[in-house]
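retry 2 of 3: previous attempt timed out while embedding KG4. Reduced batch size to 1 and resubmitted. Inputs unchanged:
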Amino acid sequence: MPGGVPVLLALESSCDETAAALCSLDGRILAAQVASQATIHRQYGGVVPEVASRNHVLHIRSLVESVLSEAGYGLSDVVAFAATAGPGLVSSLLIGTSMAKALAVAEGKPYLAINHMEGHLLSPFLDGQGPVRRSVALIVSGGHTLLVRIHEPGRYEILGRTRDDAAGEAFDKVAKMLGLPYPGGPELDRLARMGDPTYLALPRSFMVRDSLEFSFSGLKTAVLYELPRLDLTKAEVLADVCASAQAAIVEVLVEKLVRAARHCHETLVTVSGGVSCNSGLRVALTERCRAEGLELLLAEPELCTDNAAMIAFAAVQRFNAGFTSPMDSEVNPNLALV
Ligand code: KG4
Ligand code: ZN
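retry 2 succeeded.
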């Protein structure tokens, strides 16, 4: 094995990205690759589970071979195999977990079932930011909006969650109403950069003063009511509406994260998940955290959306703490973080 460093191989296939990564047991990502199916699902306006799982089957084997050759490792050098076991689409999760289990059995090595949300949660500590430290984390993805207190790797406390739509869902649904292509979040972000965030007065759901819960369905309804009087064929109007919707989501996310940090008397905050790619959110977080004296860790944009590097990193924390999973452990579409 190159340099004599033991490595773990992880697979991610919870939704429409197939990914593989190799992480050394001291937490360095040695190779990571992602095959995205976004363009395939665009024609349907969303992820079609059957199509997603078929495409995972097509790509997963070559991704495993390619991360091994990129890092100069052979299968027999891998000390453990991991895969995302939930939450996600069952038929997609089964491809990654079956592959990881098969490799583990063939090589006589342990298997680890990893929670996708733990992958996102720890991703800001990747890229040499480790070790994982006590902090308050905001996870904003397509399916989840969670405020989590990280005590140490594996010991987490949920501080707040969304009561309805996730932040990514809010971006995607508003984008769909505005006629933007799937996935709408990145496209809305791009247009918002050219728009006026004060164009529409959209609701900010802060709820009662100290609440750490989120709600984004009111925003969706407010945009829906505005639609008849908006001329979205005008590029500047479309950009202004995107900027207004983005500002409403971003303001709530930033405010609640700061509130949670104060509530827990923590000075380190982290943000992860696909929505943490959002340029408006990154700027607002940076400015607000500086003003509040909070240290902010944000994952690199390519580590914010679904990838296997974060799954490998989470798996290494578990493996080093002495955990492995039984070979008959099942996938769970609703797997909880805590
Ligand atoms: O974490 P992720 O890749 O997958 C899930 O685990 O859900 O998150 C995907 C979500 C989608 O809703 C997508 O629209 C959103 O993240 N997203 C963005 C941006 N990039 C991805 N939302 C707003 N602005 C972005 N730049
Ligand atoms: Zn995700």
